């Protein structure tokens, strides 16, 4: 039986809960056993190929494909970019959204409340529309106009909230007070079911590398839902006996908003909130993710690293990637910029870099980089 429980006090939770009612901590999802016999459906590809390792639900899907894995240095083979912009709404968020919307629909949700700075909101809007659900999206006033247009185009009710990204989250959660049955909070920062979806990133990498794992996975780090999902996925592959080690996980933050990098360097078990500064890497501008303790523990467990990069370093990486035909938003390019600073730079073995969002998500900032 797949269900939810608290990761801190072990209290059980109801299907539409988003945090522990007893202690307020993030919840964890109980998944089917990691049985190699049920790992992949040979008749399909993409996210739902791994349906046997996902929560047992009827998929609300948009044909999520396996995303491309391409060399960043052609002919080198050591650094590979995983192009998550190939998913239906143009970002890795679709991995988690297709699963969480399927879960919420199966458990009686009729309206979803979400807060987002852009990509998650656009993704939830598309999948909510697909499922016939209403969506209320709370966003900071400086959120990307293009991503908000994408959400509105799918019928989302968009509510702009003054202040930082955290203010949008607080307002969204307050809106749940007194809400009737069937109203669910779908925040990817809190919902553990979302991580079951992003775990498919690891499953795809494993299969694309011919049944092995890379030395390291590098990803932009804001809320941590991709790296935590990857950690979950590789952990389950190891539990199934399909691999014998978990790759080192490397998170890359903007130096304008780097609570996790600061905590990692200080040896702290948890992160303190910071005041976010302006950055072109808007997708990782989160003052303190709810699962910060879990993120730090997972990265340390793998012998990984968390680094911070400047906007100028991100701009250089955007240009390097564009020159190789890779068109990604600046938030994605931050991961590439982090290669030079992290302890995997120049090391042996294959490194997979998560390119989390398509460049069409950020035409304005990319145009400014080219015109500078």
- Count all strands and give the number: 13
What is the subunit arrangement here?
single chain
What structural class do you assign from the helix and strand content? alpha/beta
- Helix content class: 25-40%
Give the terminus-to-terminus CA distance: 56 Å
Major sheet size, sense and barrel closure: 6 strands, mixed
* SSE run: EEEEEHEHEHEHEHHEHEHHEHHEH
The neighbouring-strand order within the major sheet is 4-5-13-10-11-12
Q: Average pLDDT across residues?
A: 93
The percent range for strand residues is 15-25%
Rg, nearest Å: 19 Å
Count of alpha and pi helical runs? 12
Shape: globular
Low-confidence runs: none
Task: Give a summary of the structure in a few sentences.
This protein has 372 residues and is of the alpha/beta class. The protein is 34% helix and 16% strand.
Care to describe what's here?
Helix 2 runs parallel beside helix 3. This protein has a 6-stranded mixed sheet, sandwiched between helices. The longest helix is centred in the middle third of the chain and has 15 residues. The chain is built from 12 helices and 13 strands. Strand 7, helix 3 and strand 8 form a beta-alpha-beta unit. The protein is globular and about 55 Å long. With 372 residues, it is an alpha/beta fold.
């Amino acid at each position: 039986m797949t269900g939810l429980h608290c990761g801190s006090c072990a209290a059980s939770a109801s299907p539409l809960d988003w945090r522990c009612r007893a202690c307020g901590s993030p919840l964890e999802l109980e998944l089917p056993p990691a049985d190699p016999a049920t790992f992949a459906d040979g008749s399909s590809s993409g996210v739902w190929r791994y349906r046997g390792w996902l929560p047992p639900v009827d998929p609300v899907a948009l044909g999520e494909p396996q995303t491309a894995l391409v060399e960043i240095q052609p002919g080198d083979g050591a650094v590979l970019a995983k192009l998550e912009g190939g998913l239906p709404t143009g970002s890795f968020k679709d991995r988690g959204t297709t699963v969480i919307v399927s879960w919420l629909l199966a458990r009686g949700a009729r309206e979803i409340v979400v807060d987002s700075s852009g990509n998650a909101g656009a993704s939830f809007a598309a999948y909510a529309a697909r499922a016939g659900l209403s969506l209320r999206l709370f966003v900071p006033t400086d959120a990307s106009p293009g991503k908000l247009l994408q959400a509105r185009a799918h019928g989302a009710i968009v509510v702009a909230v003054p202040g930082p990204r955290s203010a949008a989250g607080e307002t969204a959660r307050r809106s749940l007070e007194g809400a009737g049955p069937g109203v669910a909070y779908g925040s990817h920062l809190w919902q553990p079911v979302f991580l079951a979806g992003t775990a498919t990133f690891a499953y795809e990498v494993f299969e694309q590398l011919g049944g092995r794992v890379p030395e390291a996975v590098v990803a932009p780090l804001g809320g941590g839902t991709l790296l935590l999902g990857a950690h979950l996925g590789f952990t389950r592959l190891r539990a199934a006996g399909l691999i014998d080690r978990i790759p080192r996980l490397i998170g890359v933050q903007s130096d304008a908003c780097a609570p996790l990098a600061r905590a990692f360097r200080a040896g702290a078990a948890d992160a303190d909130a910071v005041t976010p500064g302006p950055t072109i890497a808007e997708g990782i501008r989160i003052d303190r993710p709810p699962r910060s303790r879990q993120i730090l523990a997972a990265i340390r467990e793998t012998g990984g690293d968390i680094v911070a990069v400047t906007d100028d370093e991100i701009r250089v990486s955007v240009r390097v990637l564009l020159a190789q035909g890779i068109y990604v938003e600046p938030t994605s390019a931050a991961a590439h910029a982090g290669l030079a600073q992290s302890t995997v730079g120049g090391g042996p073995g294959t490194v997979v870099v998560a390119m989390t969002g398509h460049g069409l998500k950020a035409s304005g900032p990319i145009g400014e980089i080219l015109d500078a």
